[in-house]
Target: DNA polymerase III subunit delta
Amino acid sequence: MHNQNKISFLSSLVSSGNMPHAMLFSGTDRKAKMGISLGFAKFMLGGTEMHEGDFEEFFETGCECGVCMSVDKGIHPDLTVLPDYPVSIGSVRDLKKKFAMSPFASYMKVCVVEFAETLRKESANAFLKLLEEPKGNALLILIAPSRSSILPTIFSRVSEIRFFSSINMSDLIPEDELERCNQEIEVLERGEIQEKFAVARRYDLKNKNELASLLDVWLMRLRDKFYKDDSANAAALAKRIFKIKSITGWSNASPQLLLEKLVLDSE
Ligand SMILES: [Zn+2]
Model:
């Protein structure tokens, strides 16, 4: 199992007693990120009272104690999962209120933010307060496609654990190139139009391979969004990306112009 080392790492973090209060689970393997974060939430909420042994063993064998069952049913009072896309300022405010109180059933509180990359402006500012002034026993797990997809102010306050899909992107694409792709995709999705065009200008017939990596990483990231309600937009974008991929594969059409068209079509 390729995420085994993440599980062992989390396991050793708990035993070391040096658990960070905020973690970023980054990477393209959304299923693994969610599965392991909920498993970890269960393990921590149950504590040593319910869960003997380490997290690695716990995750492998599974558990059906009352705590774990209530997490599965989505009714554990000390676990908050923020599934909204984008994260709204309202949910962050509710979360802050919850985190200001002491735990109800467990000895700690846990929050999983499913789309931490959507924390922007007001929601990010409110969330930063939580990160800066952790109250009592609290654990925040942020899930995002990459470190560059979340705001630097947030990233600087979390410990990152990286996940990759079974098609391991880091095997296919060197780490620094993966990081570059992620940064450019952020701009292409969310930047100002001038910034988007500046990215497009970087591509010509000489660096077709780099463009191919960019498009592959982009498609991989979009897969995450198919799980959410903006899946129609994600699917439309994915179709356009596939089209560029195939056109650049067989023709000498200008990659810059194709990217510019994609940007304009998505405005
Ligand atoms: Zn349990």
